Amino acid sequence: MERVRTGIIGLDELLEGGFPSGRAMLVSGGCGTGKTTFGVQYVYAGAEKYGEPGIYVTLDERPSLIREDCLNFGWDLRKLEEENMLQIIDGAIARIGIPSDEEFSLPSTGFDVDKLLIEILTSIKRYGAKRVVIDSIPSLGYNLKTEHEVRKALLKLGYLLEKAGVTSILISELGDGKNRFSKYGVEEYLVDGVIVLHYMGVGMTSNRTLHIRKMRGTKHSEDLHPLEIGPRGIVVHRIEEEYGES
Ligand SMILES: Nc1ncnc2c1ncn2[C@@H]1O[C@H](COP(=O)(O)OP(=O)(O)OP(=O)(O)O)[C@@H](O)[C@H]1O
Ligand SMILES: [Mg+2]
After folding, report:
1. Taking burial as the number of CB atoms within 10 A of a residue's CB, which of 108, 130, 220, 237 is the most buried?
2. Cα(57)–Cα(220) distance, rounded to whole angstroms?
3. Does residue 206 have a pLDDT over 60?
4. Cα of 246 to ligand 2 centre, how many Å?
5. pTM
6. Domains of the chain: which residue ranges?
């Protein structure tokens, strides 16, 4: 199986080399667990290190703020955009009905999943994108009324991304109750891999963790791994490294 290097330091070793190529992954977690950083690092590394163009679809945060925050990690997204190695699609502002001044955006005349899919597919074709991130699924589904509509939209999204041949990350939030890895409780079944990010909020250091919950066709780590958001982005550790072997 062909692998796609994630660009998340320490993660590929836990995944037999990276994500299975051409598949969709779910990255889920509570607020502030590092989902957006994870997603941006994936497309940034793809473009900068591996020569693979990427698309970042932001439905929550304004692109200008993402660009600004990423400079703290030394990631110059603007430069990659100018080189056509990265497209940031702004769906955030259309959701509140205001026109965006971004080059790639949805019309402010109402948010529509199909319009967004067309925008994504057009961009994939035009720029030969290999990596796509959708941040986030709950925002994609926010104006869908029934679970049936949400499921249909997600199935369509998954199908089209796979058909386009990209390796994608769908970002979601953790739902309520037991065994729910995503907002709607259906996302995890539509994807080939699930990575869950946690923020424990106890102790002085290392209270962030990453857990690979599933990765089809891969013998993966089943441990809870300490995760650090450092000056160069996300680094995943092994528990032995962190606490020493005893
Ligand atoms: N430059 C930085 N250095 C270290 N840690 C940072 C830096 N920038 C952000 N962080 C940490 O990352 C957290 C936010 O990460 P991120 O935005 O990726 O999370 P998220 O899961 O997408 O959050 P949300 O649920 O709000 O979308 C911050 O709360 C902060 O703790
Ligand atoms: Mg986020």
Report:
1. 130
2. 28
3. no
4. 37
5. 0.94
6. 3-243
Q: What residues contact 215, with CB distance under 8 A and at least 6 apart? A: 15, 19, 20, 25, 192, 193, 194
Place of tokens 């062909």: 2
| 82-105 pLDDT, tens digit each | 999 999 999 888 777 778 888 888
- State in Å: Cα 32 to ligand 2 middle: 7
From atom 1 of ligand 1, which residue's Cα is the shortest distance away?
72
Identify the residue whose C-alpha is closest to ligand 1 atom 31: 32
Q: Could you report the per-residue pLDDT of 49-84, keeping only the tens digit for each? A: 999 999 999 999 999 999 999 999 999 999 999 999
3-243 has CATH 2.60.120.200 classification: no
Contact 87, 129 (CB under 8 A): yes
Is the CB–ligand 1 distance for residue 34 below 6 Å?
yes
